[in-house]
Structures are given as C-alpha cells and as structure tokens.
Amino acid sequence: TIPTEHERKYALLIDSLEEVQNRASEVYLMRQGYLAFAKGMAVRIRMEEPVDCPKKPKYKLCVKQKVSGRVIEVEKNIDKRDFDDLWEVTMNRLEKIRYVVEAGAYSWEIDYFQDHGETYFCLAECELPEGQAEPKKIPQFIQKHLLFEVPLHNDNYSSKRLACLKHAKKLYKELLEQNT
Prior knowledge:
Layout: E1 4-5, E2 7-12, H1 17-23, E3 26-38, E4 41-50, E5 58-67, E6 70-78, H2 80-87, E7 91-103, E8 106-115, E9 118-127, H3 140-144, E10 146-150, H4 159-162, H5 165-178
Antiparallel strand pairs: 1-6, 2-9, 2-10, 3-4, 3-7, 4-5, 5-6, 7-8, 8-9
C-alpha cells in the first residue's frame, strides 16, 4: 500500500518558539526545494540535519500527489551528491527549523520558516490516521499560540506556498489582524 499523507495544520504565533523549544524531543534544520509542482502535485528534495548531530544529515526525494480524495506521499532517501546536483535546479527553496513535540497520542511537527535567520511563519502539523479529521485533543501549548486552524487540503499553507516570502508574510499579517 502506498502511504497516505493525512495531516492537520495549525498556523501559530511566531512568539511560540521558546515554549516549543522547551518541549521538543527532536530539532532539525531543513532545506527544501521543489523540482516540479502543479495543482495537487509536488516533487521536492529535502535535507534534514539534526541540530544535536549536524554531521549526519539525511537527504530525501519526495513525490506528493492528490488523487481520489487523498494525498499519496512517496519518499526515498538519496545521497548528498544527488541532493546537491538537484538543488541547483530547484524552485521555491526554503529553510525551516522543525521541532518535534510528543503530546499524548500524537507527534507534532512545528516548523519555523526562516529567511536569513529571521522567522517569518510558524506552522504546526499533526499526522492523523486516515479518515480522522482532527486530533482528539489539541495540546494547550498549541491552543495558547493558535492563530488559525487550517482546513484540510488548504494549499495556501503548504510548504511550497509558504516558501514564497511575500505570500507567507501577507498571510501572517492577515491572520494577526483577524485575531486582534
């Protein structure tokens, strides 16, 4: 069976960083770029470097395709040479720091999108069993910093869209205005 990606996303306040850092069990520096994308489809490469072990990055190629009401995600490990060669032809590049926080039955991935070391957007994701629309409980630290519960399959909050600094900053500003 091909894996189905089924996640719920939440836009958070950028000032959530300190609390998330204190709860994180894993932290990664990520560089990601897209080789191709169209409505419902993306092919990307990613470098994931554990902050506590910077000499051991992992390199991955990922294909995502929306089909029959679900998102199929296939990921394959690649080597550094392939990553470096492919990086030269990527579009919509981004850097983010990912914090993994275990909370109850769920693992939360909280991404802080970076531009020259400055955070411009924060997005929390929770992978769910297929068919489950949302987590049974949203942890207090997510609720405390919550700006927006992203509807399922809303592409405005995909990493490929948030890689566009102008789009992400505009989105964040609008969310702040809606919450004041």
